[in-house]
Amino acid sequence: MANIHDPKYFKKPSFNSLPLRKDGPHGNAWGLFSDRDQLGMLNLLTADTTISATKEIVHGIRISTDLPLNFLKTPMFKRQGFHQEIIHKTPRTVNDDVLTFNTQSSSQWDGFRHYGYQEEKVYFNGLQQEDVHNTLRNGIHVWVENGGIVGRGVLLDYDSWAEAEGIPHPVFENTSIPLSHLLKVAESQNVAFRPGDILFIRSGFTRSYNFMSSEDIEIATAKYPPSSIGVQQSEEMLRWIWDTGFAAVAGDMPAFETTPFQNAEHFLHEWLLAGWGVPIGELFDLERLAVECRKAKKWSFFFSSMPLHVPGGVASPPNGVAIL
Q1: What distance in Å separates the CA atoms of residue 169 and residue 159, rounded to the nearest whole number?
Q2: Collapsed DSSP state (helix, strand, coil) of residue 68
């Protein structure tokens, strides 16, 4: 019997039919898989999509997509920084270490407990704030127990395309990447998307960060909320993400969408995390991946991510690897 969640068989409602729960917030797709679903669009990652994704492995090149946990010396959004304590278990020649960090202070997946509908004060599939504190529902452990985020990844190298086209895109300003530009990047790379793909967008944020002085970094990261490049908040962007059928989206920028948020009607964090159950990846390290994809003239790859197995987890480092 066919898996009804498999993208080959799954018939998703049209964007115009949203919200699915008419008594719920705008744009929601609650109940698409079930009223108690905790996976959202990760349901599209099936045994068949995993097998298909393995065919992307051609060169055997393995690339981590995680920045160091201490990459941001001053984490954005007033988050706690990374600290490592090494404990020498004297008199033996043995060491332990204790790590303290905010799970969103470096490369991260935003989970479905992270960001809700701000006006309605509710999370994915109707989760309430009191449920966050008193239950494990919508925790990232559910992703882990269902095999993580594993499938076909596709990289859009917006930074390189924009430079070649002479398009300024300052990364520490409120710079929006419009859908029209992303489609042109995809066309220039000869990329074809499939339902269940995991989308990666390289904006050039981490590359620019690496060339900044300590003083400039301190000024830029101290702003709250920070000004940062990201994808545009618009209906056409949301419609494209929905219609294309991405299982998850990620980028090298601090919030994936541009910050500070400009369009309250089309906050991607609300629609994707709280509305549809689409994980959002932020501050991914896409530098070497972009180099290797360009060398191979191949922008799709096998991708595997196994978040931290924290019951009720809100967010997590991705522990991601792309294999070309």
Answers
A1: 8
A2: coil
Long-range (24+ apart) CB contacts under 8 A made by 291-296 are 292/61, 292/63, 292/324, 293/155, 293/157, 293/324, 294/157, 294/160, 296/58, 296/59, 296/61, 296/324
Angle 172-83-311 (CA atoms, 0-180°, nearest 5)? 90
What is d(CA 131, CA 186) in angstroms, rounded to the nearest whole number?
40
Q: Distance (Å, rounded) from C-alpha 225 to C-alpha 76?
A: 8
Shortest CA distance to 44 belongs to which of 33, 29, 58, 55? Answer: 33
CA angle 85, 89, 92 (to 5 degrees): 145
pLDDT tens for each residue of 237-252: 999 999 999 999 999 9
What's the whole-model pTM score? 0.95
End-to-end Cα spacing for the chain: 32
Q: Distance (Å, rounded) from C-alpha 294 to C-alpha 185?
A: 13
Distance, in Å, from the CA atom of 125 to the CA atom of 86, rounded to the nearest integer, reads 41
Q: What are phi and psi of 212, to 5 degrees?
A: -85, 150
Q: What is the pLDDT of residues 208-230, one digit of tens each?
A: 888 878 887 777 777 778 899 99
Phi and psi at 214, nearest 5°, equal: -60, -40
**Token representation of residue 186:** 């995809």
Ramachandran angles phi, psi of 249, nearest 5°: -130, 150
Coil, strand or helix: which one is 241?
helix
